[in-house]
Amino acid sequence: MKIKLVDVDNRLSIKYNTVDGIFNWGLDNCYPQLVKSLINSSVTAKQCVDLNAKYIYGKGFEFTQNVPDKNTLIINKKGLNVNQLLRIVSREFSEQNNIFLHINFNALYEVTSVDLITSEDGRIGKADSTGYAGKYIVYDNWDKSKGKKIEKKDFNIIDKFNPNPKVIESQVEFSGGWNKYKGQILHITADFNELYSLSDVDSVLYDADSEFQAALFKNSGLRKGFFGAKLFVTKPFQNDSERRDFEATIKDLKGSENSSGVLLLEANLESDNLAEHILIQNIDSNIDDKKFESTEQSTAKNIRKAFGVPSILIEDSDNSIFGNSGELLIQAKQMHWENKEEERNIITDAFQLLFSKFHQPINPSNDWTITPIIQKQQPINE
Q1: CA 375, 380, 382 angle in degrees (round to 5)?
Q2: CB under 8 Å to 119, separation ≥6 — which residues?
Q3: 321 by DSSP, 3-state: which?
Q4: What is the tens place of the pLDDT at every residue in 324-348?
Q5: CA-CA distance, 353 to 99, in Å (whole number)?
Q6: DSSP annotation string for 149-176
Q7: pLDDT of residue 226
Q8: Using CB atoms within 10 A as the burial measure, which of 211, 248, 284, 341 is most buried?
């Protein structure tokens, strides 16, 4: 895994790229890829994203609890139902603070499908003279991981969301008919004043990377360092064949699953002392866990603060969950549920906007309340 950290002031530089016809997302146009890579390599960041996604999703939409036939909730050709879409959208928003929803219409201007386009693939297209960007470019190789250059012929150009029938009809006509029409994209950001929103991990990118590098260093020490290594000192071998046979014997003794290293030193002279014919010594490990303890604790704390996650919800030490009362844990869960209200509102507003125009009734009540993870406790009247 390669992680490239760019300069702090330039990592979310948003400039129009005249070559590709898009607004670059970051200096190298790979900011979402950087975010995903760092989060997936940092155990604390990944825990925070998983937990925040859970507290956005809750237990799904309340109206779906009493739907007898879940097939009536299918909302795209992938066979996803509305709760499954909510789950993946919650994860994407928790990770990137951006959502790209792809919407298709029928000739009655009704929504026929809604699906998520990942932030790694979605980019905002060229703006007109008024600053309005009416196109999105969807492409799966902005980071050039699948090819060494950007192939504009593979760009998927999709119109910006506007459910006005006249606008849709104009877009359909411009694209060459309904069979060539690619639908629209609704782009939602946590910060509506920005073209692209910063991820919650942004302020602790280096802490997330430090957590990864610390684990990598310890792993490298175990694999390539002196941990479990042996020093063999032998008398001089008579020839190369004898030396190879000895090395093969040592290799067999180690076993295929033993990763400890062996350092072989061959003495210059024969000795009459039998103990000096072969000498085996352990080489002390060069890994000191205490060197990392303080760094790991501080980076984990910073990451939790950046994501707004109470430590009691993800720490499993005696001083956190097991050292606190159950009441304190319940209060922390309730507080975190309330802290995620804004994110839930942003997402449920989008679902209400799109599915109120769906070609079949998904939610006739139009109530998009999400079922809480934990029910709010009512005060006991004495």
Answers
A1: 175
A2: 25, 32, 35, 92, 96, 98, 99, 100
A3: coil
A4: 567 889 999 999 999 999 999 999 9
A5: 15
A6: S--GGG-EEEEEP---HHHHHHHHHHHT
A7: 45
A8: 211
CA angle 296, 302, 308 (to 5 degrees): 135
- Tell me phi and psi for residue 114, to 5 degrees: -135, 130
Contacts of 334 (CB under 8 A, 6+ apart): 374, 376, 377
Residue with tokens 């910060």: 191
DSSP for residue 311 = G
Q: Is the dihedral of CA 120, 46, 340, 344 positive or negative?
A: positive
Pure H helices in the chain? 31-41, 43-57, 82-96, 165-175, 205-224, 240-254, 289-307, 326-339, 341-355
Q: How far apart are CA 333 and CA 321, in angstroms?
A: 12
Question: Tokens for 151?
Answer: 């192939």
Q: State the average pLDDT over residues 230-246.
A: 68
Confidence tier at 109 by pLDDT (50, 70, 90): very high
* Of 213, 277, 174, the residue nearest 42 (C-alpha): 213
Is residue 272's pLDDT more than 50?
no
How far is residue 131's CA from residue 128's CA, in Å, rounded to a whole number?
Answer: 5
- Binning pLDDT at 50, 70 and 90, where does residue 284 land? low
d(CA 88, CA 114) in angstroms, rounded, equals 12
| φ and ψ of 108, to 5 deg | -95, 5
Q: Which amino acid is at 152?
A: K
Q: Determine the residue type at 185.
A: I
Please report the pLDDT score of residue 345 as a whole number: 97
Question: What would the pLDDT profile of 135-174 be if each residue is shown by its tens digit?
Answer: 999 999 999 999 889 999 999 999 999 999 999 999 999 9
Asked if residue 369 has pLDDT above 90, the reply is: yes
Instruction: Determine the average pLDDT of the residues in 312-322.
Output: 64
For residue 297, give both structure tokens.
Answer: 């604790």
Length of the chain: 382
> Does residue 267 have a pLDDT over 70?
no
Residue type at 22 in one-letter notation: I
Q: Which of 53, 39, 45, 40 is nearest to 336 (CA)?
A: 53
**Which amino acid is present at 275?**
A
